[in-house]
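User: We ran a pulldown and think these components assemble together. Before we commit to crystallization trials, I'd like a predicted model of the whole complex to look at. Sequences follow.
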Amino acid sequence: MNVSETTTLSCLVFRDLRPVCAVVESCVLRVLSEGEWGAGEGGEAERPLPFEVLGVEGPRAARQDSAPRSGAARVLVLGTDRGTLPLLIPGALTFEHFDVERFAPLSGRAFDASVFSGVITRDESIDVFLLDPNRLIESLEPCPSLA
Amino acid sequence: MPTVYLPIELAGVPLLVDARAVREVLGHREVVRVPHATLELPGVFPWKGLAIPLIDVGRAMGLPREGAKDQGGRRTVIVGVDEELAGLSADDVREVVTLEEGAVRPVHAAPRPFAQGEVDWGGRVATVLDLRALFASTFARSSREV
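Assistant: Here's a predicted model for the assembly, 293 residues in total across the polymer chains.
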């Protein structure tokens, strides 16, 4: 993702996840309901990845109560350099714009293997973790053989 | 050759940080847990346009946890090693001290992980922190588990 050429990051934000996550809009090819995904191109052959691959907590854990989820799960079809990746996201999904100056990359090799490229800050605190679909697909690939 | 150290206090244990590595001393910072975070590296906080990892030095060194906060101490010391940055959690930070080379002796009285040496410290023993080793160990573990 090149954030230096624009002043605004337009993102789809998953506010019911903890920590809150987002993905840049241009990386999202389509947003479908689970039913639409099952009946369409995904079919039975390809199940969308569960949100747990992000290492985050879902809506119920986030609220620490038994309230029902605020929105039906949706399938986000993410576009990566290596193809498409369907990801199942529960809860609320909002479309938000962030000033690019609020983007702070994750610093250092501690996060080399993270599926997140950085965070969106707000008033000296962290508001949103920004998902990098390319990193996500890399994390799912088997490690190369040492042989 | 004398070296300047920043003394920090953690769980009642005095630690000395090479002042050349210190970028800034901050107050408590709210840390947001990073998905797949390790205990030694519980989260990140924003600093000068970057999301900096916080190293829980007490947990990394196996210091007593009584009264310790889960994430961050009263002070956060930003340090840099080989262009890598991290925050160190601390209960307190003292005035810098200059020590002659001979004042730092090999670790003997208070062996701890990431101890580079030790110094007599007002009736106690202060541990000189090996930042490079601390970074290497913490970051290697983190990148395996992220």
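Residues 133-140 of chain A form the longest helix (8 residues). That may be worth checking against your pulldown data before setting up trials.

User: Thanks, that helps.
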